[in-house]
Design brief:
The complex is a heterodimer. By secondary structure, chain A is α+β, with helices and mostly antiparallel strands. Chain A is built from 23 helices and 27 strands. Helix content of chain A is 56%, strand content 17%. In chain A, strands 4, 5, 6, 7, 8, 9, 10, 11 and 12 form a 9-stranded mixed beta sheet that branches. A 6-stranded mixed β-barrel of chain A has the order 18-19-24-21-23-22. In chain A, strands 3-14-1-15 form a 4-stranded antiparallel beta sheet. In chain A, helix 11 runs antiparallel to helix 12 and helix 20 runs antiparallel to helix 21. By secondary structure, chain B is α/β, with parallel strands linked by helices. Chain B has a single domain, classed as Rossmann fold, CATH 3.40.50.300. Chain B has a 6-stranded mixed beta sheet with strand order 6-7-8-3-9-10, sandwiched between helices. In chain B, helix 5 packs antiparallel against helix 6 and helix 6 runs parallel beside helix 7. Chain B is globular. The chains are: A alpha+beta, B alpha/beta. The interface between A and B is medium-sized, with 26 and 30 residues.
């Protein structure tokens, strides 16, 4: 029997290979996700170990209830350095301070030197030491008004050791420093990040953090273990500090890299699952057709003594073969996928550190299981159907029995109905957060796909016929034949179209979501923003020095100016994210939609979002207790309640004079300003840009530019997601090739007949291609319609603060439908050629 | 051979190779009901070659399908050897087809991906058996396929393909072989050959064969001919000749 399967596989090799490809694509993506994530984890584990190689203990601030406002970690007084240095257990002590996106080198042309993507670090380095992770490449460590840079940055800026270079600083006044040398991080490579390093006092001065450090690293004296060192240090530390061993630091570092990599890997896996989901339809379709074609053969085998389970096993063994082959190829393909993704991200500026690709045994096991399970599950129904073939089938000529229409309607509805219900729950349900609602929506969407796919066989005939009507009119006989063929086996038409449908549904769903985000954004801009100009860090939305607010206020033609700082505070004991803004001026820059009282809270007042107010039962005039990160606690009067948090992005508003006093750094997330009535906008803007140029990382934009930039960024995200979803289309493409090849094979005799009665090769080719086009258009139409549904559902499920208007990108959707048709025509290329090349006599005598 | 003793004891009660008792088969229900077999009772003696004739729709194919356990009777009984078929489940029926029944089809029905030899031994390999090699060699030589064994069906002529099918039916030494218009797709020369092989199988090996056919000459090679019309056996002819058959067919036609 095994030989029978083997021979069968050889006979249908071409078809099985096409099926194989669709499984391999999905499996390779799974394997690639694992390989990439594992490789990155190993590399970053090594980076963490290198960075803290000589560190026996680290002293740092105890994590408090309030995390500091910015991404910077909590800072503390550098007095501790001397205290620890006096301990006999400590051989070497070094305090350090680090920050990012605060200072930048400026090249000779006055342009800021910065990488796209990775951050620019500014920090302290006192030269090579037992605890330092930097290595000098060239020159000497920095002293006083000197700086060292990584070589990539030095080359990019055209700086040589000994040059005087200008560096922009968060104080607002750029300074000149001498480049004393170039450095390297750990064992080499900075992962694309730039480093600007001064000695400790200079770093403290330029960052405006005099007397502060964020970590102290210690090397133990000979014979002292890290644990003993930590034990010795702990008693001399103030309450807000703690000491941990180097291993603990490395572990934490690896864990934080690891969790980032896991998220990254899981996102990739998510796409892989979608691709596999699409593949199952293709595999199922191929096996269903193969079984259908061999009905008579199965009947024969049954009549000469094969049992039903032998037949079922035959089909499943064949499927296992495909599964095993797909797993092996997919595993290897995963290496390709991983290095391709690596290159893709590197091209995007995210330069990954070098390292070998890793295949762990876990990857092999998962990939083989996934490949086998997906293939076997897809082939299960066809196998069961094959086992149901009766021996009598051997006496019949051709003719496949189709499942009754009622069965399809009932089972299709049985899948579709819960799918739609789940989608509704995801959209309107209150339970759980956004993530779980989207999860429910996703499961509902998947069921809806399956349900629609099952039901689509019901209307595939008439719809394909309708789509084909204009083609039949335009293309004459080949068109009519194409139309007839596309609608004559509705089940196959719908099965083939399904893969394309899912791919395009996801892509157009993303398009709808993107358009909705953009529309929402436009709405927010027009409703909530009354500023003439906005100043912000456009790359990653990082905070910058609030010094600029006062500098801008000093410009003559600038009327109102307000900075907006995001900080963490405890309100009535609960940690909350709040916005500090210049409350006397801020309301003319941003419209918060005040519904009660005023947003001009003053230094002893606070305002909050209406949702929060009703949740907590707080009214205007009430007192709330607020505690800041420096430990200062005060009672503030509720001055107002507002309903539009779209711009300020937090539920609580405080005065910035109050918040800057009680935070270590006076940073803001963005600044908005208005011109004096009658001021020359061009001249005023030029003046603003002149002042802001001390912070080269910042963008100065008006509403229109702001909008365009956001559009650009969102469009880029859409391109990345769509790019990954295109894999679904690749799978769908092979599905169409497969179906058309099968159709041509099945109709060999008919094709011979058409040629015999005078159809030209060209006409024949054209009819096959149009048939594929009709099937694909059917899938594309369904897909785009489902995409509209899915995208709109997602918009409803996602909170209004993020997206609230459903925007439909008609142009894109129409383009996708046309793309679907074109895809079909290309997929039919080889089957059509094959059909045209058939020998007329041979074809007619085929039975 | 061993079966030839059957001839000598023909007058004493023996177990029939296959039999139908009061077999009724109706398709559909109510007004649309069609009676394909109308209370048919018949026995097929071992080692005999029986032909079944009748016009289209007379029930001859249905009778064969029911006798072979491929289709279920509406009422009545069918036995192969001493086994009553209605008591068997699918697994037992499969086992029965594998060991006791052989088929020869009008359209050859070979597996295109297997060689001639592999096709011949397929019923045995399906059951995980090797079979009697000597017997299989005898069969192969009888049908004259020795030099064609490694060929695929599409490399053989129609007559050769049907010879493979005959050999396949004989390979497992079944109790009874059912042949469904075995010469229907062949030219008269090849058809004659196939009939000769079937005749030899009966005469030399004592094989029991039941053949459905339209062809008077083919039917005349049999030991006995059953004529069916409207689901009933209308005539049971022994020692037929082509002329007798043609006369009978004419009378049924009228």
């Amino acid at each position: 029997m095994f030989r029978l399967v083997l021979r069968g596989v050889r006979a249908h090799l071409g078809r099985l290979i096409l099926t194989l490809i669709s499984v391999v694509v999905g499996v390779a993506f799974v394997s690639g996700s694992f390989v990439l994530a594992d490789s990155l984890r190993t590399i970053f584990d090594q980076v963490s170990e290198d960075a803290f190689a000589g560190v026996d203990a680290q002293i740092r601030a105890v994590e408090g209830e309030i995390n500091s406002s910015s991404a910077d970690i909590a800072r503390f007084s550098d007095d501790v350095i001397d205290v620890v240095a006096d301990l006999p257990e400590a051989a070497y002590v070094e305090g350090g301070i680090f920050s990012f996106e605060k200072a930048y080198t400026i090249d000779a042309a006055g342009e800021v030197v910065r990488p796209t993507g990775p951050p620019v670090f500014t920090g302290s380095w006192d030269g090579p030491s037992p605890v330092s992770s930097f290595r000098i490449i060239d020159g000497a460590p920095p002293r006083g008004q000197q700086v060292v840079l990584d070589p990539v940055q030095a080359t990019a800026g055209g700086f040589s050791v000994g040059d005087e270079i200008t560096i922009s600083l968060p104080t607002g006044d750029p300074e000149r420093f001498t480049l004393s040398g170039t450095i390297d991080f750990g064992e080499g490579g900075t992962g694309g990040a730039y480093f600007i390093l001064f000695d400790l006092p200079t770093t403290q001065r330029v960052l405006g953090l005099d007397g502060l450090v964020d970590s102290i690293v210690v090397a133990a004296a000979d014979g002292v273990s890290p644990e003993q060192l930590v034990e010795a240090i702990t008693p001399v530390l103030p309450d807000n500090l703690e000491a941990v061993t180097g291993d603990v630091v490395i572990g934490e570092q690896q864990e934080s890299f690891g969790s980032f990599i896991s998220i990254f890997g899981n996102v990739l896996l998510g796409f892989a699952v979608v691709v596999l989901f699409v593949s199952t339809f293709i595999i199922h379709n191929t096996f269903a057709t193969l079984v259908g074609q061999r009905t008579r053969q199965f009947g024969l085998l049954r009549s000469i003594g094969a049992s039903a389970s032998q037949i079922r096993r035959m089909v499943l063994i064949e499927a296992s073969g495909v599964g095993v082959a797909a797993s092996v190829l997919g595993l290897l393909g995963g290496l390709g996928v991983a290095s391709l993704l690596k290159q893709l991200f590197s091209a995007g500026g995210g330069e990954f550190p070098d390292g070998p690709l890793e295949i762990r045994s876990r990857t092999i096991i998962v990939v083989v299981i996934v490949g086998m399970v997906v293939t076997l599950v897809s082939a299960l129904l066809p196998a069961i159907k094959a086992a149901r073939v009766t021996p009598l089938e051997a006496f019949r000529s051709g003719g496949r029995r189709e499942r009754s229409a009622t069965f399809r309607v009932v089972s299709g509805s049985a899948v579709l109905a819960p799918g739609l219900v789940l989608m509704a729950i995801g959209m309107f349900g209150n339970a759980g957060g956004t993530a779980s609602r989207l999860g429910v929506l996703g499961v509902g969407g998947a069921l809806t796909f399956i349900g629609v796919s099952m039901l689509s066989a019901m209307f595939a005939g008439p719809v394909a016929s309708a789509i084909g009507a204009p083609i039949a009119r335009l293309r004459g006989v080949p068109g009519s034949i194409a139309r007839g063929n596309a609608s004559r086996n509705p089940q196959r038409t719908s099965a083939t179209a399904t893969a394309l449908m899912i791919g395009l549904a996801l892509i157009s769903g993303v398009a709808v979501l993107t358009q909705s985000i953009l529309d929402t954004f436009d709405e927010i801009l027009s409703e909530s923003i009354s500023a003439d100009l906005f100043i912000f860090e456009s790359n990653q939305g990082l905070e910058f020095s609030g010094v600029l607010v006062d500098q801008l206020g000093a410009i003559d033609d600038v009327d109102q100016v307000s900075g907006f700082a995001t900080i963490e505070v405890l309100i009535d004991g609960e940690p909350r994210s709040a916005t500090g803004f210049d409350s006397s001026t801020g309301t003319s820059v941003v419209n918060m939609g005040v519904i009660d009282g005023t947003a001009e809270v003053g230094q002893d007042g606070i305002a909050l979002l209406d949702d929060r107010a009703s949740e907590l039962g707080i009214n205007v005039g009430d007192l709330v207790s607020v505690e800041f990160e420096d430990g200062y606690r005060t009672d503030l009067t509720v001055r107002g309640i507002f309903d539009d948090a779209a711009v300020v992005e937090s539920d609580w508003l405080l005065d910035r004079e109050l918040t800057r006093t009680h935070t270590i750094t006076d940073d803001v997330a963005f600044i908005g300003l208005t011109y004096v009535d009658g001021a020359d906008p061009i001249a005023t803007r030029a003046a603003v840009e002149e002042v802001a140029s001390a912070f080269p990382q910042l963008s100065v934009q008006d509403n229109t530019e702001f909008q365009e930039e956001a559009q650009g960024q969102i469009a880029q995200l859409q391109i990345v997601i769509t790019g990954l979803l295109v894999l679904c289309l690749v799978v769908a493409f092979f599905g169409i090739v497969n179906t058309m090849a099968l159709a041509v094979l099945e109709r060999t005799r008919e094709i011979g007949l058409l040629r015999a009665v005078g159809m030209t090769r060209r006409q024949l080719q054209s009819s096959v291609r149009w048939e594929a086009a009709i099937i694909s258009l059917f899938g594309a139409l369904l897909g785009v319609a489902l995409g509209l549904l899915l995208g709109s559902a997602a918009v409803i499920a996602i909170p209004d603060s993020f997206v609230r208007t459903i925007g439909i990108p008609w142009g894109q959707l129409v383009a996708y439908i046309i793309l679907g048709g074109i895809l079909g025509v290309i997929a039919a290329w080889f089957p059509a050629r094959r059909a045209a090349r058939l020998d007329v006599l041979d074809a007619i005598s085929t039975d | 051979m061993c079966w030839q003793t059957a001839d000598m004891t023909a007058t004493t009660p023996i177990i029939a190779a296959a039999a139908a008792v009061d077999a009724v088969k109706t398709y559909g229900s109510g007004d649309a009901a069609v009676t394909a077999l109308d209370h048919v009772s018949v026995e097929f003696a071992p080692g005999k070659f029986t032909a079944i004739m009748g016009p289209s729709g007379s029930g001859k194919s249905t009778l064969m399908h029911c006798l072979a356990g491929l289709d279920e009777l509406t009422s009545g009984e069918v036995t192969i050897g001493d086994t009553e078929l209605s008591t068997l489940n699918d697994r037992q029926l499969t086992e029965l087809r594998r060991t006791q029944v052989g088929f020869i089809f009008q359209s050859f029905n070979l597996i295109p991906t297997l060689t001639a030899e592999e096709n011949i031994v397929l019923p045995l390999t399906l059951g995980g058996r090797k079979g009697d090699r000597q017997w299989i060699d005898t069969v192969i030589d009888t049908v004259g396929l020795r030099d064609r064994l490694s060929h695929r069906p599409n490399e053989l002529s129609g007559g050769q393909q049907q010879r493979v099918a005959v050999a396949r039916a004989l390979a497992s030494q079944p109790t009874i072989i059912f042949a469904d218009e075995p010469t229907g797709n062949l030219d008269s020369n090849s058809g004659g050959e196939i009939l000769a092989f079937m005749r030899r199988a009966v005469d030399e090996f004592g094989q029991t064969i039941v053949m459905v056919t339209h062809d008077a000459n083919a039917a005349a090679t049999a030991d006995r001919i059953l004529f069916l019309n409207d689901g009933q056996i209308v005539h049971d002819m022994s020692e037929p000749t082509a002329d007798k058959v043609l006369d009978m067919m004419k009378s049924i036609g009228n």
